[in-house]
Specification:
The radius of gyration is 30 Å and the shape is elongated. A hairpin with a 6-residue loop joins strand 3 and strand 4. The chain is mainly alpha-helical. It is about 60% helix and about 5% strand. Helix 1 packs parallel to helix 3 and helix 1 packs across helix 8.
């Protein structure tokens, strides 16, 4: 059992106080947020609390991060609501049971992926796609919570439909409801700025409950949470049929992708700060165990939380024992304190949700993606010269217009299409020689570089393969057609690979140019390129690769 609780190996007694304090601090943030995120998932607030203890303890037992906090999160809660609603399809299925079943299926999928060492799959959701997805999801969540804040009915649909319905309902705004919700939202945001170590969500929830009891807010039209069952949930498999479970399977993969990417990002961030490493496959197993435990405890989907991990780190946590302390306090909450939440205004919960997700609307990050641009890329790719920005916007608008999972896959699809487009149109730079030192550099970037009379030097800044071979052939042929060009030298140092289709293209092009009196020479290839040229039986001229561009140019000018 040496692989259980890896962060506790070599534990020192003096760390106990810091872990206990950090656990209490995490609990103070976790309780109100778990209640709020459960409402995003479309289930009773207490379901968020049901999910937390098992998730915290089981992640501590199997995960590789010393600081990551596992629990309900806004993004996966929204995904859960979408997947369960789609699987239920208007049937009489128990939404709460299916939410727990989804947590189980996501957990099982993560465990299987971890055992199969599929941790690399996180790379298929790029950071810009995840950023755009999270921004779109946060805006959609906020649009869904605003009706509760204003005390109006609101409407279903995507982000734009929800906002349009809200505008139409604003005439029926409930004053006391808006005061409670907006007041809690402002309070949390102010405390985050002036007293970041104070758990603003817990303060807002406490004051909301006190105000509801003191002023009888329910009698003034303010909706409250209502009856909350006290005690711990009965462990067991959710009461769903095999057909219902099968309907959740496909959606669980999308939920897992987001949960894993978000949690792994948080784990790696704080591992770097703590000077230790996390294992992606171990993180999958930790996430799987946490999800399975949450589902079998009548909970909901869980994943690693960046915000609560930041709280854990800031409070001085040294190991996952802080998560165990937070789990114990959550159990105490379930046993003795749930009755307090019955008078909690739903508008206050909406304020907690909005305060939690508004920081995810990271517009400056999208602006920074837009600024990643060069004139050379613009010439080569046109509108596709900002691929990361386009992928982020595609994911964001996809979520806002077509729902969560479609939006995610739209973002992934656009990023892959842009990758294929860019790889099919590689940047090809013409090089010139610098006076004095004789180095060869791009003519576009270094105006002082000079062309070599009779020799064209080109640098292909990509691998050469079937998708871009024709375009490269066209550019080389065009360069060779210039008046007085007796040779074309391809600097292959920036060509990481080549395939058989490209070798055949170069073979044919070499023969074609020779017939016109122009030589084609290669310089500075890398090992993989050299190996393919040799084993694919390229022409002798191509297999003879010059060690430097200068050597190739001298050979071209001397006729060797």
């Amino acid at each position: 059992m040496h692989w259980l609780f890896p962060s506790l190996r070599g534990y020192r007694r003096r760390w106990l106080g810091r872990d206990a304090l950090a656990g209490a601090t995490v609990w103070a943030v976790l309780v109100p947020e778990a209640l709020a995120y459960a409402t995003i998932a479309g289930v009773s607030p207490v379901v968020g609390l049901y999910a937390a203890p098992a998730a915290l303890i089981l992640y501590a037992a199997f995960g590789s991060s010393k600081h990551l906090v596992a629990g309900p999160m806004a993004a996966t809660a929204a995904l859960s609501a979408a997947v369960v609603a789609d699987a239920a399809g208007g049937s009489s299925a128990d939404f709460t049971a299916m939410t727990a079943a989804l947590a189980v299926t996501v957990g099982l999928a993560a465990l299987l992926a971890g055992l199969l060492r599929l941790g690399f799959v996180a790379a298929f959701i790029s950071e810009p796609v995840l950023k755009g997805f999270i921004v779109g999801l946060a805006l959609t969540i906020i649009a869904g919570q605003l009706p509760k804040l204003f005390g109006v009915e609101g409407g279903p649909g995507n982000f734009f439909e929800k906002i349009w319905a809200l505008i139409g309902d604003l005439g029926g705004t409930g004053g006391p409801t808006l005061l409670a919700g907006a007041g809690s939202l402002v309070l949390i945001l102010v405390l985050k700025r002036v007293a970041p170590m104070v758990p603003g969500s817990l303060v807002a929830v406490t004051l909301g409950i006190a105000a509801a009891a003191a002023f009888g807010l329910e009698d003034h039209g303010v909706d409250v949470v209502g009856s909350v069952e006290a005690g711990l949930p009965s462990p067991g498999f959710p009461d769903v049929s095999l057909d219902e479970l099968g309907g959740l399977a496909a959606g669980s993969v999308g939920v897992l992708l987001v949960a894993f990417a978000e949690g792994l990002g948080a784990a790696r961030t704080y591992a770097a700060r703590g000077h230790y490493e996390v294992d992606a496959n171990r993180e999958l197993i930790g996430l799987g165990a946490a999800g399975l435990g949450a589902g079998l405890s009548s909970g909901m989907v869980v994943n690693g939380s960046l915000s609560k991990t930041a709280v854990n780190w800031s409070a001085g946590a040294r190991t996952q024992l802080s998560g165990v302390f937070a789990a114990a306090l959550t159990v105490i909450t379930l046993l003795f304190l749930t009755g307090l939440f019955e008078k909690l205004p739903e508008a206050v919960l909406a304020g907690v949700v909005i305060a939690a997700v508004v920081e995810l609307v990271d517009i400056p990050a999208l602006v920074s993606l837009y600024r990643v641009f060069t004139h050379r890329l613009g010439q080569a790719y046109g509108v596709a010269a900002r691929p990361d920005f386009l992928a982020a916007i595609a994911a964001m608008l996809g979520v806002m217009a077509f729902d969560t999972l479609p939006g995610l896959f739209i973002g992934i699809g656009v990023s892959l299409l842009l990758l294929l487009y860019r790889s099919s149109r590689p940047v090809i730079s013409e090089l010139g020689q610098l006076p004095g030192n004789g180095h060869f550099t791009s003519l576009d970037r270094h105006g002082e570089s000079r062309r070599i009379p009779g020799v064209i030097v080109l640098r292909v800044e990509a691998g050469i393969y079937f998708a871009n071979a024709e375009r490269i052939e066209s550019e080389v042929r065009e360069a060779a057609a210039r008046e007085g060009a007796g040779a074309v030298v391809i600097d292959a140092e920036t060509v990481p690979f080549i395939d058989v289709s490209a070798v055949r293209m170069l073979d044919g092009l070499t023969g074609e140019l020779e017939a016109l009196g122009t030589r084609l020479l290669l310089a500075r290839d890398v090992g993989q390129v050299r190996d393919v040229l040799r084993t694919a039986d390229a022409r002798a001229e191509l297999r003879h690769v010059y060690p430097t561009v200068r050597a190739a140019v001298e050979a071209a000018r001397s006729g060797r």
